[in-house]
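This protein record is not my work; I was only asked to verify it. Where you disagree with what is written, explain briefly why. This is what I was given:
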Amino acid sequence: MPPVKQSRHQSGSGRRIGLRVCLVTFACVVAGTLFLRFGAGKRRTPAGPGPSASQAIPTKPSGTGDAVFALYAGSASCRDCHRQAYDRWGSSHHAQAERPLALGLDLPAFYPPRTVRHGSQTSEVRFAAQRFEILTPGEARTPVAHVAQRVIGVDPLRQYLIPWRGGRFQVTELAADPVKRDWFDIFGQEDRQPGEWGHWTGRGMTWNSVCASCHNTRVRKNYTPEKDAYSTRMAEAGVGCEACHGPMAAHVTWQRGQPQPPPTKDPTLRLLSKDQMLEACAVCHARRTELTGDFAPGEPFLDHYGLIIPDETDLYYPDGQVREEDYEYASFRGSRMFAAGVRCGDCHDPHTAKVLASDNSLCLRCHQAPLVPAPKIDPAGHSFHRPGEAGDRCVDCHMPQTVYMQRHARHDHGFTIPDPLLTRQWGVPNACNRCHKDRSADWALEWVAKWYGPRMERPTRTRAQAIALGRSGQEVAIKPLLAIAREDKIGLWRAVAVGLLKHWSADREVTRSLVAATSDADALVRTMAARSLEALAVANEPSARAACARLLEDPVRSVRIEAAWALRASLDTNSPAGRDLAGHLFENLDQPSGQMQAGVFQLDRGDEPAALASFQRAVSWDAGSAPLRQALAVALSLQGRQQEAVKELRVACRLAPREAEYHFKLGLALNESGQLEEARTELAEAVKSEPRFVQAWHNLGLADAALGRLEEALEALTRAESLDPASARLPYARATVLARLGRHDEARNAARRALELDPRFGPALELLEALGR
């Protein structure tokens, strides 16, 4: 598991954080200046019982782990009784996942010395004075000799750990290939620079936070926020026996006190089910967020992690294929293999992690007999490729490989079906063109249509198309997404649909569907339902708040935390769900994204100074993150520091020039600063980047009206109204502009339309009175 899972700059944790930007309106009937305001609003104090915002997030770790580590006996204690399994594990990548440097293993990488050019930088590796040294730019741009103490990984690459201040180890972006015996930058040509979050000296490459837990056994990060320091400990270096089987000290003690073989069953031993073993694997083979930092085998995955799934992110393709470094679990969870009961041990040796067979015989164990519910497959008639050539193996087409970290090729575990039509429509890769790179998707589509005909019109295609439409924000996606959320047999895909439906949560049918999803049998679906109901819960929609309140007592922690987050402004922080959320916030305080989330929590609990401090800390740790700059701008604006807020938003727009939301908010902030012409420019940029951005069109129209560009204002407001025909404020705004143009009949009709939509909309009533009805 490599040390960086985000882009070079942005330290997002996977959680989608809804920043509270209090947007209120004021009306000037004739001028029509119904501008949304940036960062304005009443300050809120914590509602309900419990401590204040600053007290709600723990400030000290619960313990360094002595009691927990005492439960572990170490892998060596397994050797005498489990010799065969121990020997197979001993030569595995798991056993060697992390270790101290050794002359016999590591000297070839450092001697003879060599120079490595990567991007604009030049580094050197050498063995000198009995030390393994890497001369590379650190926090400054001048190369400095850093002594490597530990190494993670085996083959095809090894990365080295450099001791750092505050109990840290930093992971080098330079890696050694033990087979080719060369060095390379795992980020290719990105050329990460000192000061960036993703540079090897940055927090995105801090071993304690992003590497240790998957390369070792039962790790306690032990981060102290006040000192910004770690005292990280572990039960055993490397992925030992107990990383998968759980703590065994009691078992070892009991066995040593018994005659061999023991006359009775070991009362201390708890064997894990296939599903529990799968979730133990998932801990390090999933892209996920930390909830507790304290998982033990046998415990539910979703009690300790939030799973990143193929919903609105571009981390996955719409059909579930991995795009970024997503590992295996989420894709596998969305597969028909998972739904049929296949688990890791059915294909992999649990002690070496290698596949049980490297040819089609592995798949045909189920697909040749066949075993229910696996369909019978004849490889020759199914693949249309000659035996032995590329494309003949099942995995060539259904488990395509993607190379990560420049050298590490990994199979996709979604077992997807190659579909060139999805390539043509949505850019989803297909196995045919992955191999036949010189051919077009149309060429591949012609052949699969010839070979498989109407069988290509399968539910997986329809589902991928619906998800792609949902990601692009098209309302035509609502109906198929509702069907997936209600009917798909695989929980992950119901969760994906529920996650995408949040964009239309105000629609009554969608609201009902999301509320219904809070009772789904799959905890992942309930987790996403709570996340999708957040906006409605914050807006005090009764059914959403009631549903989230029920989920505060859900048996699964990830569900409780999402529900608690949705109700954070009024949450009882002394309740079990409140403590779960506080623990999650604390666990991530060592990363900029964690500070951002803590700041949002503090802001919504009414502690604006604490929120501002959290956002400032986040930006200082990751100055290249546009979302963090935006969050800081909100807090600055709430403190009345408007010019500083504008400055931060300008930086956010420079870092993410195509992000419409940042241009929109900069436009609002500039308007509040009296810079209306510049505000209009930013609002125009927002609608250029996102043509369906209703609020931006609305405010662009109002800016044009305020600047006397009345015809342009009408055009923008009409566009907004076409995108959101249920909003009363839009025809009202149009009415004010029509009134200024002297087109009073049209103005009356527009005001009446606003009242049809909302009979209690006061500004429209006032305008009609002013126009003499």
About this structure: The longest helix spans residues 608-621.
